[in-house]
Amino acid sequence: MRSAPGGEAPQDSAKAKQIKSLLRGLESDDPGGRLESISALRKMGPDARTREVSLALAAALKDSDSHVRSAAACALGDVGSAAEEAVSALMEALKDECPGVRKPVALALGQMGHAAKHATGALNQAYDENDNAVQVFIAYALVKIGSTGKVGMRELVELLKDEDDTVRADVVVVLEMLGPDVRGTVAALGQASQDRDKFVRMQALSALRDFGPSAETEVPAIILALGDQDASIRQDAVHALQEIGPAGRRAIRPLISALSDKESSVRSAAARALGDIAPESPKVVSALRRAFKDDDSEVREAVAWALFEAGPAARPAVPELMGALTDSAPDVRVAAACVLGGLGQAAKSATSEYSVLGRIGRMGGATVGSAGIRNRSMAKQRTKLGVPRIGKDKAVTTSDGGNR
Question: What is the pTM of this model?
Fold first, then answer.
């Protein structure tokens, strides 16, 4: 590749020119143009995280337009610790007249972590001078920086009792940003999963799901959410348990009960979760066998893939899997055949009358159509076997050339 003048690669030179152009855009007379420049700098990611950019964004914290000031603070937060030279400007911006600016300013200081350690005094003072809506982000910043002062995790968690739903939702957001390694975040999210506001509960369960096995201590709280009146909350709770995985075995009985939920989306999610948490459990296999009678084909398919995870423990389900080979839904038939194939000789004698895959254990000859895979768990099993999802009008071609 030919180098540009000064030894720069053409691509690097082009990016440098783009950054200079965007920095000039910050001097535009039009607030909209200045906002567009900041947005474009953020989209450039690491390429725009330079000292020059940080100083320009720090200067933009004094812009006449509050939206520009807010955007500049958000951009500095993206830069994180590399924007250390902007800390002083951010400390001054904690006094901004607009709460909508002070929030992202505090957030940015938190995202800088230890690099913003000398801002702790200003943050503590700002905490006393602001209402709860801004205090959420100031407390986050102090926890993230590692301050041992008067404001910390206890104050942040206390804000989960605020009357304002938005404040409590913001607490959940920053708790997830802090991550499971910060003491107290997981327990606080478990508490928030029981919040009176639906969207706060959803956010808390989503965070616990993202924490995976680290959220094991909150399995009891997540189990309570399985009884929520809102189906979307019940489904979120199942997903959280699924991501916790085998560490969430305490949830086996409630998840088995969820196989009878009135909403099919919850039932199919419960089957997948059981397949990830304890597929080899005799109680789980027994419950999955019963679930093959579900009226919804997506539930039956999820049940089959959960049994695939059970391995040899799925042998008692051979009769149900045999019946599923003639299911009205092609995807259920394929899933059942894959499970039987995985059982090998254990299922061979029972399936000799079927030619869905030619011979049990020979999976490579199945050819299928293309359609979307609706969930991660089924996608995982199909990927293992090289079996894509099939359309309703597609046949399965077996290894011996026959069709089903």
Answer: 0.82
